[in-house]
Specification:
71% of the residues lie in helices and 2% in strands. A hairpin with a 2-residue loop joins strand 2 and strand 3.
């Protein structure tokens, strides 16, 4: 009975989200604000992957900007080639300014839409799988893994700045078409928003299925007791690699959607600061929950936009203060605060059952790691 009720609640939740995203938002927001929301949904897609890798798997991923940038640049290269062909040119406009008359060899495959879409999926996942196996097989974790992933993001940003064939520090911009559709048309801009909204719902559904599967139990077990899982006959490295690769795939897809929605992709979206910004949204929303990262990423990005319009130089201080408050007093994020308030309301005054919010780092019950061991 409880399973059936849970399924109905899940379907009801997805239904409400679909109505809000596909019905209310397009009707209530202007074209500009709807485009901003589409941009925030891309951040939310990245956040869902971070929630899986960090919240459920305990991997502090500080380099998701790398995979976000890979997906964005692959899509940007295809869009620039398509724009050049539409204008009757052999190379994109910025290459003409540089005096380049022939398309570089590594650009040529991305003239095909099919190769572009396949590359957005395969290239980041392959990089994440190789990196994950090399790191997790050597039992690198914690702060060392975080520093390594952050160094990778910094290295890629520096590399892109020096590549004039990829636009240098300006990146790729000025996209005019998206698979044959003119981006200047408001209807096509709305179509891009709908694609981002639909992708977010699919990503959330996939992660929910992973969390509720046996793999999800093993992932939490690895987070809570890696040596115990190894003793039971599982390889924690393989379990981590799956989560890390999945998060990389989601970030790449988000970057590929971000490029046409915003109209550019540059090294500023790839380095350390964007990666940390992704992490802040997840931490504020609640990294161990399913919807916490989504709501946190959208909420922080929206607050940044509104706050920056009034106080352009003050948002960075507000963001830092908010992060400190959440980490210091509500380590489970706003979703964890909601769980605490719900538990407190269920108790009676003086019964002493209400937990202290500071001592509840994870709204999920701890025995999940025990369930993984018991089911073995």
């Amino acid at each position: 009975m409880r399973t059936i009720l849970g399924r109905w609640q899940t379907w009801a939740g997805f239904g409400v989200a679909a109505v809000l995203l596909f019905g209310v938002a397009p009707a209530a927001l202007s074209t500009f604000r709807l485009g901003l929301l589409g941009q925030f949904l891309c951040y939310a897609i990245v956040a869902v992957g971070i929630g899986l890798a960090w919240g459920r798997g305990g991997m502090l991923v500080l380099g998701q900007g790398v995979f976000f940038g890979i997906g964005g640049y692959i899509m940007g290269m295809h869009l620039k080639i398509a724009d050049a062909e539409f204008a009757g040119n052999s190379v994109p406009d910025f290459m003409q300014i540089q005096g380049v008359r022939e398309l570089p060899g590594f650009w040529a495959p991305f003239a095909s839409p099919l190769v572009t879409l396949v590359s957005i999926v395969l290239i980041p996942t392959a990089i994440a799988a190789v990196l994950g196996l090399g790191v997790f097989k050597r039992r690198v974790k914690g702060a060392y893994f975080a520093i390594l992933s952050q160094a990778l993001a910094a290295a890629l940003a520096i590399l892109l700045v020096g590549q004039m064939s990829l636009g240098g520090s300006n990146g790729l911009n000025g996209f005019r078409t998206f698979f044959g559709f003119r981006l200047a048309d408001p209807a096509n801009k709305q179509m891009l928003y709908f694609i981002a909204a639909g992708t977010l719902l699919v990503v959330v559904a996939v992660v929910r299925q992973l969390m509720q599967s046996r793999y999800g139990e093993l992932l939490v077990a690895v987070r809570d007791g890696e040596e115990r899982v190894r003793f039971l006959g599982y390889d924690p490295a393989n379990i981590k690699v799956v989560a890390y690769t999945t998060a990389a795939l989601f970030a790449s897809i988000a970057g590929a959607l971000f490029a046409p929605i915003v109209g550019f992709i540059s090294p500023s979206q790839v380095g350390i600061l964007p990666s940390i910004a992704f992490l802040i949204g997840v931490a504020i929303g609640g990294r161990t929950t399913l919807l916490g990262p989504v709501l946190g990423a959208i909420g922080v990005a929206w607050a940044q936009t509104l706050f920056s319009e009034q106080y352009p130089s003050g948002w960075i201080y507000g963001q830092g203060l908010l992060f400190i408050l959440v980490v210091g007093f509500f380590p489970a994020g706003l979703a964890g605060l909601a769980v605490f308030l719900r538990r407190r309301n269920k108790g009676t005054p003086g019964d002493g059952d209400a937990p202290d919010p500071v001592s509840v780092p994870d709204p999920d019950p701890e025995p999940e790691s025990e369930k993984a061991g018991a089911s073995t």
